[in-house]
Amino acid sequence: MAQLRLTLVLNSGARIGPGKAALLKSVHSCGSISAAAREMGMDYKRAWHLIDSLNQAFKTPAVERTTGGTGGGGAALTPFGEELLARYQKLEATARELAASDLKALERNSSGKAGPKV
Q: Parallel, antiparallel, or unpaired: how do β-strands 63-66 and 15-16 relate?
């Protein structure tokens, strides 16, 4: 079935889409950026770059890191990060619901071939 993928583009040009939302969710559940990256099959540098881009895009950071100590460092969503993820997920669910009948209609007319990527 046809799918809808939502990417929000802020006036600044910053973006949040399915990948960054999944990373936020993974950081929330894993408690660290490196564990979240491993869980998603991505390297730490890429994960950190994505988190940093989110943190720079908003006045309040979405993720805060904690350093060292006996248990090592970690990361957690800030209250704003939790709000950002919740709002993105709400927008995504609403868009999916609103588009369902149109996606079904388009899928019925699909040839089943992807064609060339251009």
A: unpaired
Structural domains counted in the chain: 1
115 in a structural domain: no
* CATH code assigned at 82: 1.10.10.10
Tokens of 58: 């908003």
DSSP string, 44-98: HHHHHHHHHHHHHHSSS-SEEEE--STT--EEEE-HHHHHHHHHHHHHHHHHHHH
* Span 79-106, pLDDT tens digits: 999 999 999 999 999 999 999 999 999 9
Q: Determine, yes or no, domain membership for 22.
A: yes
Q: Residue 44 belongs to what domain range?
A: 8-101
